[in-house]
Amino acid sequence: MDKTNATVVSNFIFLGFTHCSQLEVITFVLCLLMYLISLLGNIILISVSVLDSHLHTPMYFFLSNLSCLDIWYTSSALTPMLANFVSGKSTISFSGCAAQMYFSLAMGSTECVLLSVMAYDRYVAICNPLRYPIIMNKKICVQTAAGSWVTGSFTALVETVSVLQLSLCGRSVINHFTCEILAVLRLVCVDTSKVQLIMLVISVLLLPMPMLLICISYAFILSSILRISSLDGRSKAFSTCAAHLSVVVLFYGTALSMYLKPSTIDSQEVDKFIALVYAGLTPMLNPIIYSLRNREVKVAVKKLLVRNSVCALSVSSSK
After folding, report:
1. Which of 78, 210, 268, 287 has the fewest other C-beta atoms within 10 Å?
2. Keywords in UniProt for this one (predicted)?
């Protein structure tokens, strides 16, 4: 960074959706709903996965990790925007912006890796069921989940440090509702080719490659489903796979359109809505699509509710 020309920036100002006040109100309501639904759905999934011994399986272990990710992801991306709207402020400190950028990138990057691990887990469970307990044992599950978190955290750290060490020359107005890395990068007044190369390499490693692995896994899964003799069983399996793939395509598609688009395309307003999709919509859909539609989870939720009701009745009767 050129120390002579750098001007210290202590606070950033978000433009958000200020060009249209009505749109800003609608966006606030939608984001609040998405955040609350996401929070509730993911907390329910984590609770039943921990409390019900029947759900102590690799699939629900990975889903619990995904739920933790989604809670962190939506909290880091949406809660500052919601708080700013309520308070009427649109500023954030430099350290706050750095933290928000890092956690959003870390959670998003970790999810990219974790989704591919989950797809491989389903591939082994369906295409190689006899060896599934051996291949996806507890040690392997913990190692792959930890590897996903470490990979996402490390790549996010590299990107965040690479961008924030560059000179901003006093520019502090971010045309976004959050400290999104591309929006902050537009404030930089020095050559960004090295940083863009770093981001390109990381984006290729975390977006097209995991998505390719997911597509290959589901291709084998669909091939196995076609061999199911029962028409009802085949249709249910197809329905489940289609729901999973729709969420995957939505998440990776929006991320790809954001981070791997040509640099000549400048669509900052569109980028804001794309960010809302992968930071708010997909974390809300994940627990619904992956878990809350499952019969096992529904049964576990009912057991948990009945157990709590019985405990509450016994406590009230003892009084």
Report:
1. 268
2. Cell membrane, G-protein coupled receptor, Membrane, Olfaction, Receptor, Sensory transduction, Transducer, Transmembrane, Transmembrane helix
Please, which residues bridge with residue 91 across strands?
13
Domain that holds residue 162: 11-259+269-293
**pLDDT (tens digit per residue) in 242-265:** 777 888 888 888 888 888 877 666
CATH number at residue 237: 1.20.1070.10
pTM above 0.70, yes or no: yes
Domain count, the chain: 1
Is 1 part of any domain?
Answer: no
- Counting DSSP H helices and E strands in the chain, the numbers are 12, 3
Confidence of residue 107 (pLDDT cuts 50, 70, 90): very high
Asked if the structure places residue 99 within a domain, the reply is yes
Query: Does residue 37 carry a pLDDT above 50?
Result: yes
- Give the residue carrying structure tokens 């959003």: 104
pLDDT recorded at residue 9: 73
How would you class 296 by CB atoms within 10 Å of its CB: exposed for 0-12, middle for 13-18, buried for 19 or more? middle
Average confidence (pLDDT) over 267-293: 80
- Does any domain span residue 302? no
* Residue 100 belongs to some domain of the structure: yes
